[in-house]
Amino acid sequence: MSLSLSTDLISSRKTLLFMLVLIAPIALAAVNLHNRAREQTPLEVIESYLKATYARDYRAAYGYISAADQRVWDEKSYVQAQGEFTGFTAQLAGTLANFMDLKVTEESSHGHRAKIKVDYSVPAPEDVSSLVLDWDSEKLNSLSAAEQTLLLDALAARQRSGNLITIQGHETFELIREGNAWKIFQGWSAGTKVKVHTLLAGRSDVDIKLSQNEIFTRGEEPFQVNLKIKNRGRERLVLAMRHLVEPSQAADYLEMIECGLGRSVVLNPGTEQEFSMAYLLNESVRKNVRDLALTYAFEVNK
Question: Which end of the chain is more exposed for a tag (fewer CB within 10 A), N or C?
Fold first, then answer.
């Protein structure tokens, strides 16, 4: 009886092995077919990247960037430089990002490379600012589940009614094919890294937050710096700002094309203001300077 059981067991194992050998290629083909079905087109990659950056989900955005660029700027540094949303704040921004409209205006491709220009519209974050607690992450992330649901429903209702104000943008992307995936080529290796800092000594009642503390700029494209200043104190403040540029010789070749901080800033107690500055680097600087430090030095005027 023991011998019979052993024989049956061996026979069963042989049958199982035969079935595995027969089924494995079919299963592998099914997996490959599924993977091919999930491959994104260049336009889908651009859309996913734009939605991720709008929602400040920079970990997701980094995944759409080419390997050549990732060798220049690692994911941890990239995410820290941008400043990501977390928790319910990230969910809110992602919901608005999904309201994005995108269309191609120009397109060309050659082998494993593609160049696509797109126009897009997306909800203006400022338009819903009062609804989403002025994008205060601390407050948003502390909302109860019921409060979060009400807020998401309110945004969806605005979208359905067409009452969301949108902002328009256009951008040109270069993409390269890496294996079975399209990736966005930024050309960071040929660019200049701009590190942005703020300086305000001796004040604990003023918050200055940069949207990015590292920026890569290349070609003749201008780069933009956005920051928010909040007066947490009980007194009215008047702030003056000056630029500090290193290396110092690059200062003469850094052209300011938009300055939201050209004059002194008046902040009443408990108020916050947002500012935007845009710059263009001279060609000689772009060729010879790979790292640039830009510091906003603030001082309080009496």
Answer: C
The encoded tokens of residue 10 equal 């061996």
Residue 2's identity, in one-letter code, is S
Residue 138 class from Cβ within 10 Å (0-12 exposed, 13-18 middle, 19+ buried)?
exposed
* Residue 229, SS3 per DSSP: strand
Summarize the chain as % helix, strand, coil (round to 5).
Answer: 40, 35, 25
Q: Containing H/E element for 107?
A: strand 101-110
Q: Which of 132, 165, 188 is the last residue of a domain?
A: 188
Query: Do the domain assignments include residue 11?
Result: no
Considering 125, 160, 188, which residue would you say is the last residue of a domain? 188
In angstroms, the Cα distances linking 44 to 49, 53, 55, 143 are: 8, 14, 16, 33
Residue 29: phi, psi to the nearest 5?
A: -65, -40
Residue 211 inside a domain? The answer is yes
Tell me, yes or no, whether 8 lies in a domain: no
Asked if residue 265 and residue 160 are part of one domain, the reply reads: no
Structural domains counted in the chain: 2
Show pLDDT as tens, one digit a residue, over the chain (302 residues): 444 545 554 555 555 555 545 554 554 444 444 444 468 899 999 999 999 999 999 999 999 999 999 999 999 989 988 888 999 999 999 999 999 999 999 999 898 999 999 999 999 988 898 899 988 899 999 999 999 999 999 999 999 999 899 999 999 999 999 999 999 999 888 888 899 999 998 888 899 999 888 888 876 778 889 898 999 889 999 999 999 999 988 888 888 888 877 788 899 998 988 888 889 888 777 778 888 999 999 998 76
Q: Which domain holds residue 207?
A: 191-302
